[in-house]
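Section 3.1 - Work completed
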Amino acid sequence: MSNLILDFNNTYNKNDPYFKDFTYLDMHDIDGTDLFCSRLAERRIKDRIYKYSINGIHFIDNGNYHYMTRFFIQKIPEPFDLIVFDHHTDMQASTIPGLLSCGNWLKLVLLDHPFLHKVILIGPEHKAFTKIGHEDRLISISYEDIKASRLPEYNEYYPIYISIDKDILSEAYAITNWNQGDLPLNTLMAMLKKLILHHKVFGLDLCGAADPTLELPDLLKAEEVNEETDDILLHFLKKMSEKHPLNV
């Protein structure tokens, strides 16, 4: 099991007591990673995470690096379901053809992952999708569905991997570098608890840190809010994994 912190922007306090059992990976020296991931950067990232297991909790900085989920789940060697909490679809056409980005990574996963069974995409802006040809493998759950408890039953035969972009949360719980939803933190944790209790889980990643270019007072405020939520989520996930390890 590999609990990891992938720090592209000096986002995390690696000395936080909650991170005592995490491996800290400094990613600052890899160029070509922000929003888009160059082919050279992809090779360097994959080399850096190669020896680490997909099992565990992975912090992957802000939403510009959500494509990291694609690299993690490429390690999965059997059929699985991907559960994504995100305010955005991440299924856009790339503005730079052929280049992986935070806006198209999930579309690429749907198109080319050999073991992906279904994607369950949970977030309030998921009403409209670009046609990609694999909609039969996509379940979209809007914020309205969540409030009305219209959550589908998942096939328990398949293990799952969970990816969370904190931009699904209201700004009371996260201040990210993208526009956000208004999901309460306790609702997110209730859904996570149900998933972890009833499914085998390969691992879980979280992104949604603040915009590092904010003015210092705004950045400090954002970091305070985000660190509090990270600590709450990490404490919750550690407690859950004591009896239900994030480790298939």
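Second construct:
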Amino acid sequence: MNSKDKKIHEEQSIDLLDLFFYLLKKWYLLVACAVIGAILVGYMTYTEVVPVYRSSSILFVAKTGTIESIYDLQLGLQLSEDFVVIARSKPVIDTTIVKLEEMDGIKLSRGEVLGAISVSEMEDTHMIRFDVTHTDPKIACDLCNALTEVMQDQIAYIMSTDKPTIVEQAEVNPFPINGGVNNRRQVMIGGAGGFMMCAVILAAIHIMDDKINTADDIEKYIGATVLVSVPYDKAQTFERSTKRSKKRKKAASTPTNK
């Protein structure tokens, strides 16, 4: 590589150390953008995200009081899988809607109830778990208990036995499942995003700036050595410029003799 190509390569390369110190000088802008990003994301998070609450209950579905053999135990274990499907059937959902309306005076649609409930079999047990989510913690609790009571009657009817035992009733949960840590994380992401966006913009401005500002720039781009530099006083320059402007205005306003 000859000296000319080397010079062109040096001009096109990015001095990362110089860029780092340039960004370091602009730390106040980086911090300000990070704070603004965190505030914006935090505002959007706390105003647009609706808190959702969850209540849960557990029901024991084995043939209590009538287990006579290992076959009955296995039958109860197999039926627990079936009851997961039955819990989402139309008769159970409709009865749950009626019971919830009697409890809270609130009538939900089938779609709302199906979207709110989650039924799962607890592995290797005779139990099923009901999870209900809603924006109102009391409705979530009452809906879960209503569904559990309806399933008690349905299971007793299907198995021709006594009502199964409620192992755990739903309680009002005052803590939303989509709050706390998730919100803090989003705020941190917003702050980091604002910081990075500001850093990219400043880096682009610095890289694209091809003006000669220092003696080092003269040596770098022109290849000449600076022997003497005259300090530039902005105040004096502004004062001189103002005086010249006043003189021009005065001369323009003075009438000329014919």
